[in-house]
């Protein structure tokens, strides 16, 4: 059974930092592109950042220079370090795994990030 479990969300003031973690089980972690997506109230889910099995990273323009995605294959965990947070970063953040070989995709249940002005 595949599980992606996110943690690290919470309430923070604008300008603050949070680090999200997502630990995976039931997948061959090193073979997956791992991503963080977010969905704000009334908006569509959007890609925040992803990191390939080879370590190549990609970021949404809105978070470049503020967020950093990384992975630890030994711990089956992907991280999202979020600095200089803004109120518009408020959303539920979801972890995603995409198998590079078979294309299967999996989602976590999400963790809420709230940034106060």
Q: Would you spell out the secondary-structure blueprint of this structure?
A:
Elements: E1 3-7, E2 10-13, E3 18-25, E4 32-39, E5 46-51, E6 57-59, E7 67-72, E8 77-82, E9 91-99, E10 105-107, E11 111-116
In summary, what is this structure?
Helix content is 0%, strand content 55%.
Describe this entry's structure for a reader.
With 117 residues, the chain is mainly beta. The chain is built from no helices and eleven strands. Strands 2, 4, 5, 6, 9, 10 and 11 form a seven-stranded mixed beta sheet that branches. Strands 1-3-8-7 form a four-stranded antiparallel beta sheet, with no helix packed on it. A hairpin with a 5-residue loop joins strand 5 and strand 6.
Q: Mean pLDDT, nearest integer?
A: 97
Please give the count of helices. Answer: 0
| Termini separation | 40 Å
User: Helix share of residues?
Assistant: under 10%
Largest sheet: 7 strands, mixed
What is the oligomeric state here? single chain
Along the chain, the helix and strand elements come as EEEEEEEEEEE
Output the keywords.
single chain, 117 residues, mainly beta, seven-stranded mixed beta sheet, four-stranded antiparallel beta sheet, 11 strands, 0% helix
